[in-house]
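Data deposition worksheet. Section B asks for the primary sequence of the deposited chain exactly as it was used as input, without tags or linkers unless they were present during the calculation. Section C holds the resulting structure in token form. Section D is free text for depositor observations; keep each observation to a single sentence. Incomplete worksheets are returned to the depositor.
Section A, Depositor: J.P.
Section B:
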Amino acid sequence: MTLPELNTYAQALVAEVLATAETENLTAPEAFTRRVLDDLEQAGEVENTFLAYHRAHGVEVSGYGSNDSLGTLDLFVTAFSLQPSEDRLPRTQAETLLKRLATFAKRCADGLARDIDESSDVHDMCTAVEKALAEGPRLRLFLLTDMNSSVPALPPAEVDGLAVTYEIWDLQRLHRLTTSGTFSEPIHVDFDPPIPCVSTPPGDRGYTVMLAMVPGQDLSDLYGLCGTRLLELNVRSFLQTKGGVNRGIRDTLLNSPDDFLAYNNGITATASEVDLVQLAKGGRAISRIRDLQIVNGGQTTASLHYARTRDKADLSRVWVQMKLNVVSPDRVHEIVPQISRYSNTQNKVTLADFSSNHPFHIAVEKVTRSIWAPAVDGSGQETRWFYERARGQYTDALALERTPTNQRRFKALNPLSQKFTKADLAKYVHAHGQLPHYVSRGAEKNFREFMLNMGETPPAVDVAYCQRLIAKAILFKAADRVVAARNFGGYKINIVAYTVARLVEASGRRIDLDRIWREQGLSRALTAAIDDLCVPVREVVVHPLRGTHVGEWAKRVECWEAVLDVAWAVPDDLAEELTRAPVEDIVSISDQRDESATIAEVEQIPAEDWLAVARWSKETQNLEPWQRQLAASIGRYISSDTEISDKQATQALQLMVEAEQLGFRRSE
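Section C:
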């Protein structure tokens, strides 16, 4: 990395943070913290993050998170500079900030929450941290800064009996994170003693295949250190112990560890480079693997870690076979997805398991690069909405414009305020799709749900689809500004997501997305409706049931069901602007079916039966939450004579059949 590259990145980072702060009514440090945590979530470094700033005598914190896969409690503190290229974070300041963060943890354990206003998000943070500390987690303290730090790392320590590790994410490390081709920092693994291997002879295939046996203890330790970063190129997430495969792995590890090698299929991994040593008795062994990724066998790896940490399994006699593909960097994104797809034999893998390289995201990038948003400011200058399929694309494209004049022109045609990422896309779609509880689970988990919900039949991406997608982005961003102006305090993202979802539901999905695209903004009636609706929605979101804190409550479908019960009707002036039929994503003609018969079959079932199956599902927990929500919506649509889409009708009939098989009985 050259100094000019780092300076360019620093300038772009500060500009983006300031633009976000102004747009979303945040302070610059808050916007910076959110940006970095989003990046770290996508990289698999952190999970379940929550922002809440608190500073007092000897104490400072910017937020917290919990990484379920690693069993850690994460605390964050931020040091933000408007001149990162000139300023430097000295060691003393870094150590002081981390000490203040550690003191915050101690104060939480001593009941700091009792001294904080119960209505604030800081109180929720203190309560959650106090509860987490009681379970004896591994504590990770993160210092986030846009300056270069004089100390890149600090050694692990122990605080009040808890193992503590320190993570310093400074300008250089953030730049590496942003510009890395695989997004997160590469994982290098040393083996001592080296592990014997056999390999294919050299060739011009662009890769070499090696076979080796890896100690189960080493894999468990590696997952404990790296977590899901180790599985970034894996086509699916770890499924906990719900699937039969994982239960089988756990049983074998606990009851017959010597047989694990015979029973388990092992792992498939990729690397960019391998260091080999000669063995005294002949043959070669792997001493180091650079840029390791496990592309198949994530369940095996994670199960080893959980069996050891949770079940206290002895892994000393466990060995795992590994097929290691050493791939040249220029063929990684060509070969790895195919390895992931075809080597998986334990659970079905679908195309929807891929992220950046999924055809859907490639298509959205291609189409959005080709369409121009209408000029609405009187200048006549059309602009683009820049879809950043992979982190850093916007910065890279800007850097290609060598001169200041060309860079200014690029920014004018591609405003930073119109850049959106994969995580943003999932947020806009799920809020409009009436899944605000998914949005509230954080960028990475929401995106994961988006990919899973897409299934094997993603929507056909064409110009009309992308225009309506951007309209959803405009709607969400406008709602964000309206809610910010209300100065509610915390939980803005949750309130915005639930407000948009409730607005779409109340309108029968008839908000005119095509008009929003044409006008690149909302009408006065639509803006006023959001301003009116967000008040009662906020009351539901920030007053959870059953004593849980707001952050957890907003992630639950019960919160959405409570918001659905809010007494609110579409104002008359907005009703005049709604479309006659529900607005759906555009589908290709080849995907269309004779929808009238399916919809008619749904409408022949009385509304009372749809509402009854929703109540039955809630009482018995026999259907998925989204099915319960759909049944209730169908009942309301039939009662209000609102049109039902073909997709909804198909899913509704399926859930009714499933409910009847599980014991539900319709009225005679």
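Section D:
The mean pLDDT is 83.
The chain is about 45% helix and 15% strand.
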